[in-house]
Design a protein that fits this description.
Strand content of chain A: 15-25%
CATH class of the largest domain in chain B: Alpha Beta
Strand order of the largest sheet of chain A: 15-12-14-13-17-18-16-19
Distance between the termini of chain B: 52 Å
CATH architecture of the largest domain in chain A: 2-Layer Sandwich
Strand order of the largest sheet of chain B: 2-1-3-4
Radius of gyration of chain B: 20 Å
Radius of gyration of chain A: 22 Å
Oligomer: heterodimer
Mean pLDDT of chain A: 95
CATH architecture of the largest domain in chain B: 3-Layer(aba) Sandwich
Shape of chain A: globular
Distance between the termini of chain A: 37 Å
Number of domains of chain A: 4
Largest sheet of chain B: 4 strands, parallel
Largest interface: A-B, 28 and 25 residues
Low-confidence stretches of chain A: none
Chain lengths: 452, 350
C-alpha cells in the first residue's frame, strides 16, 4: 500500500479508501461529454474531522482534491482533471435537525434529494424544500454549491438563496461556520453578519461544504401540476409574467422539444400549485386558468391541458433516450425571461445544425427575476463523432447564452473560460486573490476557475 | 378524397330534430334546430358550430343515421371554428404521429384483439381465462400509433387528418390478414363501423366490439361465474355513441356476472361524458363546465348507490377514476370486473 493510501486509510478506515482501477474508473467520468480522467484515490469520509484530515494530508502531499456529492453536474465539474483524491461526500448523510417552527433543516452535505424528500414527507409533512428535479442521489450540498434551482425557485429563488448557515472545511483544513451558527448554536439565519460568501458557484475550488442549514417552506396538503400550451414562443415571457403576478404558483417551467412529435414547435408551460383544501386549490385554479390565462384560451392562442394532482417534476435525463447510446448534457444559463423566444429559436437552430433533436427548457426563478434556460443535447456514448457533435453544440450554446446577455450556470471548462474572458478585470483579480488566499497550494479541484 | 355522406333532404324532413333539441349543452328548440342544421349543411355560420362540446351524442340522437356530428365537425374545420385552442389541436395532431419504428407484423391466430393506443396502461387488463387464446396486437407503446384509429380528431374538428391517416391504419391492421378484429376501445370500433362507412373508407375486416367478445366469453365460462352482488355505475364514453346498438351488452354483461346497474339520471342516451374534452375548449367557462359535468355525474352515481364505477375507455379513466375514488366509489375496468366474477384477482385489486 502506498503511503498516501495508507494515510488516507488511517483517517477514514480501509473500507472507505480505494486506489483500485475499477473503483477509480467510476470517479473518472460524469454522464456528460467531458473527457474522463481517473483520480489516484477515491475516499469517502464520514465526518467533518475526516474531511479536515484529508485536506491537511493533501496539502502536505500537494495532491489535488476533487469534492463531489452525487457527481451529477454533467458539466465535468467533479472529473479529477489532474488526478488526486476524489472526495466522495455521500457518506455524510445525516439529517441533524429539522426545526419546524423556524422552518429549516440542518443537514450534512451528502444528504440526497430523495432522502430529504422522503424524510420530510414522513416526519414533517407540512414542510418541503426546493427539490431540483435531479436524479434522487443528487445531494443537498452539491445543489447549493452550484447555485441550483428547485421546484420552489419561482417564489424563493436559487437553492443557494435558501441557506441559513454553512460549515466549510477550508482548503488549508480549518473549519469555518457562516451565519448565526458562527456565534451560537442556532442555524436559523445567514444574515446579517459580514458577508463571506466565497464558496458557492466556485465548483469546490475554495473549500468543501460539510453542513448546510437549508430553509424549508410550507408544504400544502394537495400539490399538483397544471399545463398550459402555446405555439407562439413570443407569448411565453408574457405568460410567465402574468402567472408570477398572481403569486400563486410554486414552480413555472416552459419547455419545448422535438421528441415526442406532439411537443415539437409547442411550448408547454407547467405550473405547480398547492392548497390545503379543495377550496384553496380551486381558488388558485380559477385565478390562474380562468382569470389570468382565459384571454389566451378564448383567442385560441393558448390551451389549458389540465391539472394533475401530484408533482410532475422535470426529468431532463429522459432526453438521453432521444438518441441511441444514452448520453446527454445540457448548457444551463441564467437568462432574462424575455430572452426565451430567442433562446428557443437559436437553440433549435443549433440542434438542427448538429442533427440532434432539440430540447429546451426555461424555469422561472424568483417572480420572473430570471430564468434558468437549458439547451440539452443527446449523444451516443459509444460514438466519438456523436460526442464531438454534442460538445460542439454545447459550446455554441455557451456562446449563445453570453451573446444574449446571460450568465452561465455551473459551466464546464469551456464556459468558465468564456465567463472569465468577459469578466471585468477587477472582479477577476479579486477572484484570483481569493483563490490564492484560501487555497495557497492550488489543491482544490484544479483546472476549474483557474484565473490566469 | 373521402366525402361525408350526409343526406340534406333527410335532415330537412326530420320531424324531431333530436340531434340538436336533445343536446345536453345547448338549449335548442325544434325550429331553431331545423334552421341551424340548414345553415350548417349549406356551409353558413351557425352558433352550433361555436357552442358544440363535441360530445358525439347527436350522432346517436339522429335515428336516421345521418351523421350530424360528423357534419358539424367538418364544417368547423372548413370554416376555421376550432373547438379547442390551436396549440392544443396542433399537439393533438402530433400525438398520432408514429416515430419509433415500424410495427412487427407477425402471423396471428384469431381471435385478434387490438389494444389501440393505450399501451402500456391497458396491457395489464388483458389477463387470465377471459383472454386465453386471444392474439393481442398494438401492445407496444413505441409502435402503437400505427394502429391509431385517429377518431379523436373529431374533438379537434380535424376530419382531414382522420381521412388522411385512417386508410394507412387500416392497411396496417389488414396486414395481419384476419377476418375479424376485436377492438378494445369504443373509439376504434366506432371508427371502423360508423365513421369509415360514413366517409366511404373501406374496411377489409369485420370489427367486433370488445363487450361482445367479453359477453360471449363469459357465457362460455358461465359455470365459473359467481355473482358479484355489487352495485355499479357505468361511465359511458363519448365514442360509445357511435355504436349504440352495442350498448345493451353493458347490461347483458352485468346481468351475467350478477351486478346491479344502478338506476341513474345520467345513463344510456342521457349519459354524461367524462369532461376531459370540454376542459380545454376555447369557449369561456369550459374548465368550470367540465368540473360541473363531472360533479353532476359523480353525485348521480353516489345518489344511485353505486359502489363501483365501471370504465372501458382509458381516457375516461384518466379523467374520472381519481375523482370517483375520492368520493368513495371504486373505479374498475370492465374486463377486471368480469375477471372478478370468474374468481380471478385483477392486478392491484384489494
Amino acid at each position: 500500500m502506498d503511503n498516501v493510501k495508507k494515510a488516507l486509510a488511517e483517517i477514514v478506515g480501509e473500507d472507505h479508501v480505494s486506489a483500485e482501477p475499477e473503483e477509480l474508473y467510476i470517479y473518472s467520468y460524469d454522464l456528460g461529454t467531458t473527457e474522463p480522467h481517473r483520480p489516484d484515490y477515491a475516499v469517502a469520509p464520514r465526518t467533518t474531522e475526516e474531511v479536515q484530515g484529508i485536506v491537511k494530508l493533501a496539502n502536505k502531499e500537494k495532491i489535488p482534491v476533487v469534492p463531489l456529492g452525487g457527481g451529477l453536474s454533467l458539466a465535468g465539474l467533479a472529473v479529477p482533471l489532474r488526478g488526486g483524491i476524489a472526495l466522495d461526500l455521500k457518506r455524510m448523510d445525516t439529517i441533524i435537525e429539522v426545526n419546524e417552527k423556524a422552518r429549516y433543516a440542518l443537514v450534512e452535505c451528502g444528504v440526497s434529494q430523495a432522502q430529504m424528500c422522503s424524510y420530510l414527507e414522513r416526519y414533517h409533512p407540512t414542510l418541503t424544500h426546493s427539490e431540483p428535479g435531479a436524479p434522487g442521489p443528487a445531494t443537498i450540498g452539491g445543489n447549493v454549491a452550484i447555485h441550483g434551482q428547485g421546484d420552489l425557485a419561482q417564489p424563493y429563488g436559487f437553492s443557494s438563496d435558501m441557506i441559513n448557515g454553512l460549515e466549510i472545511v477550508l482548503p488549508t483544513g480549518e473549519v469555518c461556520r457562516f451565519g448565526s451558527c458562527s456565534i451560537s448554536a442556532g442555524w436559523f439565519t445567514l444574515h446579517p453578519l459580514p458577508d463571506l460568501g466565497l464558496f458557492l458557484g466556485w465548483s469546490g475550488t475554495t473549500g468543501i461544504i460539510t453542513k448546510v442549514s437549508l430553509r424549508l417552506f410550507p408544504c400544502k396538503r394537495i400539490r399538483g401540476t397544471g399545463q398550459f400550451v402555446v405555439e407562439d414562443e413570443e407569448l411565453v415571457p408574457e405568460v410567465m409574467h402574468k402567472l408570477t403576478h398572481t403569486q400563486m404558483a410554486e414552480d413555472i417551467i416552459a419547455y419545448s422539444q422535438a421528441i415526442p412529435p406532439f411537443t415539437s414547435g409547442l411550448h408547454h408551460i407547467t405550473i405547480n400549485i398547492g392548497g390545503d383544501s379543495e377550496e384553496e386549490l380551486e381558488f388558485k385554479q380559477k385565478l390562474l386558468w380562468d382569470d389570468t390565462l382565459g384571454e389566451y384560451i378564448r383567442r385560441g392562442d393558448g390551451g389549458f391541458l389540465g391539472f394533475r394532482r401530484g408533482l410532475d417534476r422535470p426529468v431532463v435525463a429522459k432526453t438521453s433516450d432521444w438518441r441511441k447510446g444514452g448520453g446527454f448534457e445540457y448548457v444551463g444559463a441564467i437568462m432574462p425571461v424575455d430572452t426565451y423566444p430567442e433562446c428557443y429559436r437559436r437553440g433549435r437552430e443549433i440542434s438542427e445544425r448538429h442533427d440532434i433533436p432539440y430540447t429546451v427548457l426555461g424555469r422561472c426563478i424568483g417572480m420572473s427575476h430570471a430564468m434558468m434556460f437549458s439547451w440539452t443535447y443527446a449523444f451516443n456514448r459509444a460514438d466519438p463523432e456523436s460526442i464531438r457533435q454534442a460538445r460542439e453544440a454545447l459550446h455554441e450554446s455557451d456562446d449563445l447564452a453570453l451573446e444574449l446577455g446571460g450568465t452561465l450556470w455551473k459551466p464546464g471548462l469551456y464556459g468558465q473560460k468564456l465567463v472569465m474572458e468577459r469578466m471585468d478585470s477587477n472582479t477577476l483579480e479579486l477572484m484570483k486573490k481569493v483563490k490564492q488566499l484560501l487555497d495557497p497550494n492550488g489543491i482544490m479541484n484544479p483546472g476549474n476557475w483557474e484565473v490566469a | 378524397m373521402y366525402e361525408l355522406k350526409f343526406d340534406e333532404n333527410e335532415c330537412l324532413s326530420c320531424v324531431t330534430c333530436d340531434c340538436l333539441t336533445r343536446c345536453q349543452y345547448m338549449d335548442i328548440d325544434k325550429d331553431t334546430a331545423k334552421t341551424e342544421m340548414s345553415k350548417i349543411f349549406n356551409g353558413e355560420d351557425s352558433f352550433v358550430l361555436h357552442d358544440c362540446r363535441t360530445c358525439y351524442a347527436c350522432e346517436e340522437y339522429c335515428k336516421m343515421g345521418n351523421h350530424p356530428f360528423y357534419l358539424i365537425v367538418e364544417r368547423q374545420e372548413e370554416m376555421d371554428i376550432p373547438p379547442r385552442p390551436r396549440p392544443l389541436i396542433k399537439r393533438s395532431v402530433g400525438i398520432g404521429i408514429p416515430f419509433r419504428g415500424e410495427p412487427e407484423i407477425k402471423e396471428v391466430k384469431e381471435p385478434v384483439l387490438s389494444m389501440g393506443t393505450f399501451a402500456p396502461l391497458t396491457n395489464d387488463l388483458i389477463q387470465g381465462k377471459l383472454f386465453q387464446g386471444v392474439s393481442l396486437i398494438s401492445t407496444d407503446p413505441r409502435t402503437m400509433f400505427h394502429f391509431f384509429c385517429q377518431l379523436m380528431y373529431l374533438h379537434d374538428a380535424r376530419t382531414s387528418v382522420i381521412k388522411e391517416r385512417l386508410p394507412k391504419t387500416i392497411e396496417t391492421i389488414a396486414r395481419y390478414n384476419v377476418k375479424e378484429v376485436i377492438f378494445f376501445h369504443d373509439e376504434c370500433y366506432g371508427t371502423f363501423t360508423s365513421y369509415a362507412p360514413a366517409v366511404g373508407i373501406e374496411v377489409p375486416f369485420k370489427p367486433i366490439h370488445f363487450f361482445e367478445y367479453l359477453y360471449n366469453r363469459l357465457k362460455e365460462l358461465r359455470d365459473e361465474i359467481k355473482p358479484l352482488n355489487l352495485k355499479v355505475a357505468y361511465q359511458r364514453p363519448c365514442s360509445s355513441r357511435l355504436s349504440s346498438d352495442k350498448l345493451h351488452l353493458v347490461d347483458d354483461i352485468f346481468n351475467l356476472i350478477g351486478v346491479e346497474h344502478v338506476k341513474r339520471e345520467y345513463v344510456g342516451e342521457n349519459a354524461l361524458c367524462c369532461g376531459g374534452t370540454i376542459l380545454g375548449q376555447r369557449k369561456e367557462g369550459s374548465r368550470q363546465l367540465a368540473a360541473d359535468v363531472q360533479r353532476r355525474n359523480i353525485e348521480d352515481m353516489i345518489n344511485a348507490g353505486a359502489e363501483l364505477c365501471v370504465f372501458n375507455c382509458p381516457a375516461c379513466w384518466d379523467t374520472l377514476a381519481e375523482l370517483v375514488a375520492q368520493r368513495g366509489i371504486r373505479p374498475i375496468y370492465m374486463s377486471d370486473l368480469c375477471r372478478l366474477a370468474i374468481g380471478e384477482k385483477p392486478a392491484g385489486w384489494r
